[in-house]
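Objective 1.3, modelling of assemblies. Example input:
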Amino acid sequence: MISKSKQVAVLVGALAASFNPLVVTEAEAGAISLSWLSRANCWVGGYYFNESLSYHVGTAHKLWTYSGQYRGGKLEWGKNTGWQTTWRSYSGRQLKTTGLTVYGNHWEAKGTTMHKLGSTYAKNCNLSQW
Amino acid sequence: MKNKLTIASFVLAATTSNLAVSEVKFMPPEMESVDLQSYSIGTINNQDVPKELKDMAKKQNDELRKNGYYKADYGSLMNVDANANLPKPPPGASKQKYALKISEPDLSLFPGAKLMFSEAMGGATKDGWTGIARIYNIPGIGNIQFEDVDYILSQGNFSLMQEFINTDINGWPAAFSVAKENEKKWQSELYWGTDNKAYSLITSKKIKKGDKMYNLLLAFARSVR
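Predicted structure (tokens):
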């Protein structure tokens, strides 16, 4: 059986071109494997979302995510998630103001490997165009 | 040079152990250029992670050596057969942009093989995604998920726990492991890396080292270019 959450994720990603950047972006990747990204100043529901996350819909991993958020070159906010067993490791916040740059660091640990997945960077929310 | 020899010694140690199934024929020329800041083989004890994670890895390794599989946490295994049949994006849906140079298996070695599903993975960068996951149906083994991530483009790194190394892919150290969540849910995985790529081959089948499916899995991995 295909899990309902995966069907929803893939269908939403394929069909909802620019309906909701947060949902569409996560559905573009991560339905069958691990993906990670940062995004900045994503206007959704009256707020600007700024976040770094790693995710794999329906499959738990041991993940750690850090999001550092800068305004005018100065660190305004930063948060580590610590190690979590989860399908979605998330560090972020929503604001009423825009103008942030977001840097993310992403790690994974399992038996065979304990490594940094990567670093991500965003000044805007254009991911759905990819 | 010292680092290169260190990697070689891990491979040789692994392949002469009782878990070994293949011999290292040569060292790949690419290994000359390995950036060991990014590519590393280390012991579980030397990892900069909490004790809980080291204990998890040690337990998995002990179980793997004793039983041929380790007990996986609930919800941590994939269902590759289900993923192979996920709905495809409709024609006209926007194409993903990829930053990586995509590696290809030599499907001509596997008559009847076909691509079932493909999706971006890895990190999102301004140039596109740094990885791609594809599911192939290979006669004799069924659905296998092939994950191809450029960890350099991702600004990440590749690491392999020395204790898990039990074979090699074209000279690169590799770990074959089997995980069991319950009697109906298994996952067999082959994991290896090169100087810029991290690769995984994953099936939802219980595969034993040395059996026909295992040999097909290795042949698929060794055909990747």
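Residues 4-129 of chain A form a domain with the Immunoglobulin-like fold (CATH 2.60.40).
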